[in-house]
Amino acid sequence: MAGLFNWGGRKADTETVAPPPPKAASAQTPVPASERSTKVLPRFLAALAPIDSPVLLNLGPVVGQNIAFFGERLGCKIFVEDIAADLAASPPPVNEVKAFLEKRLPHTHGTIDGILCWDLFDLLDRATSQALAGHLARLLKPGGVLYAFFGATAAPITQLTRYIVAGPDSFELRLSPAPVPPKQRNVLVTRDINKMFEGLVVTESVLLKSNTRETLFRKPS
Amino acid sequence: MWKRDEAVRPPQPAPPAPSPATNNPPQAAAPRIDTNRPAERDTVNIGKSVIIKGDLSGSEDLTIEGQVEGKIELRQNVLTIGPNGKIKAAVFAKAVVIQGEVQGDITASERIDIRDAGSVDGDLSAPRIAIADGAHFRGSIDMQKTPGSSTKPTEVNKPAVETKPTALPVAAVPAAR
Q1: Is the bond preceding A142 in cis, omega lying within 30 degrees of 0?
Q2: Are the C-beta atoms of residues B125 and B105 closer than 8 Å to each other?
Q3: Do A49 and B154 touch (CB under 8 A)?
Q4: Chain A contact for B170, CB < 8 A?
Q5: Which residues of B37-46 are buried (b: 16+ CB within 10 A; e: fewer)?
Q6: What value does the CA radius of gyration of chain A take, rounded to a whole number of Å?
Q7: Alpha carbon of B165 to those of A23, A137, B100: distances in Å?
Q8: The pLDDT of residue B165 is above 60
Q9: What integer is the mean pLDDT of A92-115?
Q10: Which pLDDT tens digit goes with each residue over A12-63?
Q11: Which of B167, B155, B108 lies closest to A73 in space, CA to CA?
Q12: Assign residue A196 a region: left if phi > 0, alpha if psi is -120 to 50, beta otherwise?
């Protein structure tokens, strides 16, 4: 009742003005804090859009939302190969990495239109990264594109990141605990990256606030 | 105002009268149950202890909780592989729901759903595919464009996307893990 009498008062006005901010805040909370925009993913999609039934190679864990997104958008064929999980489960000796990759990714050279590496290279050692980059470059068709993230912070990996495509220009990052003991991140500087992916050209490279470099490579036609 | 309420109440005792009327609908509902029964009959279950080696084909929806090795063809029907189901077979169906294990290629004319406990080693081919987080999958996925689709398959597919709402939540099941 006291509130009823206060309706007309100035104080009441200020009180009614005050509530909206919390409302605005609550409207913001449903938006996942881990959602990030991307300028490179649209380029990746644009490169594949003109191709009829492109072939994609996804080198991360299977994510239903991503499969649905790329499948419906591009009408593509997607190979899902969780290389990092296999390497973690049974890491091959350094001199057998090439053979492992040939066996694990037996696709004919020059048959893949797009490769999604996500942050795979952060999790691998230098030698494996080098071998994998060379193998992927051979798998790509001329004109094909490769999309990858490279962490620039030399710190142990305590959390694994899953990139869930939320839209053509945004991601949702889903974190999960990394295996113990945490591995040291394989930090690659731009020069290393360019050298590793010899035969491919960097068409887009964006340094994100998270200190991660989002990069798009293209195999010259 | 109160009087009006009271005025409304008298008819309420009448509801008992309508209740017999509602008793009639149950009678009418009885046939509904009957209509459901045949639908239930159209779904066949293969139990946990059943092992089938060879080709399996039919024109009814099928749920497999047992083991099947060979080939499964239900081109006009839904195949559900239950949590206990273990399949080593090439599968052809209208729609396939996987909660158990499958080793082999799966082709569906409408959709494939791999639930969070599902496991597939093989190639998938369907216009709509949903894979829940936590599901195991190894192989390739072919989401063909519908015939006559333009450069924007998403928009063309949308009409047939009645499955989309179901597909997204399934993919959203990730919350489970």
Answers
A1: no
A2: yes
A3: no
A4: yes
A5: eeeeeeeeeb
A6: 23
A7: 29, 37, 23
A8: no
A9: 93
A10: 343 334 444 444 434 434 444 578 889 999 999 999 999 999 999 999 889 9
A11: B155
A12: alpha
For the four alpha carbons of A152, A153, A155 and A160, in that order, the dihedral sign comes to negative
Asked if residue A104 lies in contact with residue A91, where contact means CB atoms within 8 angstroms, the answer is no
The identity of residue B108, as a single letter, is: A
Q: Is B84 exposed, middle or buried (0-12, 13-18, 19+ CB in 10 A)?
A: middle
Chain B positions touching A79 (Cβ under 8 A) are: 139-141
Task: Using the Cα atoms of residue A89, residue A92, residue A94 and residue A98 in order, give the sign of their dihedral.
Answer: negative
The amino acid that residue B10 corresponds to is P
Determine the CATH number of domain A39-156+184-218. Answer: 3.40.50.150
Q: What is the Cα gyration radius of chain B?
A: 23
**Min distance A19 CA to chain B CA atoms (Å):** 32
DSSP β-ladder status, A140-151 and A212-218: antiparallel
Give the model's pLDDT for residue A25: 39
Question: How far apart, in whole angstroms, are the C-alpha atoms of residue A5 and residue A8?
Answer: 7
B112 shares contact with chain A (CB less than 8 Å): no
Query: Where in chain A are the domains?
Result: 39-156+184-218
CA distance A55 to chain B (A): 9
B42 interfacial to chain A (CB closer than 8 Å): no
Asked if B143 and A80 come within 8 Å (Cβ–Cβ), the reply is no
| Spatial contact of A127 and A94, defined as CB atoms under 8 Å apart | yes
ipTM score of the complex? 0.75
